[in-house]
UniProtKB/TrEMBL annotation:
Methylates ribosomal protein L11. It comes from the Bacteria. Keywords: Cytoplasm, Methyltransferase, Ribonucleoprotein, Ribosomal protein, S-adenosyl-L-methionine, Transferase. This is Ribosomal protein L11 methyltransferase. It is found in: Cytoplasm. GO terms for molecular function: methyltransferase activity. S-adenosyl-L-methionine binds at residues 144, 165, 187, 229. NCBIfam families: prmA. The gene is prmA. Its EC number is 2.1.1.-.
Amino acid sequence: MPWLQVRLAISPEQAETYEDALLDVGAVSVTFMDAEDQPIFEPDLGTTPLWTHTHLLALFEADTDPDNLVAHLELLTGGTLPTHQIERIEDQDWERSWMDNFQPMRFGRRLWIVPSWHAAPEPDAVNLLLDPGLAFGTGTHPTTALCLEWLDGQPLQNCSVLDFGCGSGILAIAALLLGAPRAVGTDIDPQALEASRDNASRNGIAAERFPVYLPAELPQAPADVVVANILAGPLVQLAPQITALVKPGGHLALSGILAEQADEVRAAYQDAFDLDPTASKDGWVRISGRRH
């Protein structure tokens, strides 16, 4: 069925007031959205930060009267509404729409990420089957793409691989399909480990080729290739630990880094690695190198 959608342009300070007011006047859902593509990283524990310019979207039953709705909201909040837009939107098969928007993607020369409901565009290529699940990594984000492209260019035969912050397992599974005999994954989130196991099974990867661990359980065995697609802050903080997990002469790729954070991350690793030129994509970067 169709819906009446209200979009309000608010500041973080107004969020609670207008969220409560919208729910009080009958909104069936309220969603906060970034109005200006402003990333938020590493919030303090117990906080839920909002963007400087936030859009608050609320859905109402289709027969809701817009004029009465505005009048009630202004009465509840004690003033004129912020800049807003009210429109009727048609219902749709959201799952089908979402599936249609997730298409096979190519990374480097050999590697494709293919959702399970699509045929592989190049059946003889390296095809990694992956269904978007809990947003642990699907290849659509530039940081994941940068790491996949890097892995595609590595000679992984006879190499051990560690995926530090494995999420969906996409990087480790890609390395295995590209020729690595064994990979290890670690993540702080047990759900990520479960997603990694499921995705490995979907791609015919035996459990013994891709064991996954919580950080406290991770064997401290250095690997030939280490990939860490997390965030700049942890990459800097954990530099000694991550460095120790790379064999002398081994290779490292780091991502999850904004362009303006690149110098700080490079500085944390430059004493232990011969670093390659920084690679960039859509404002994000990858830092890679070979351990001394």
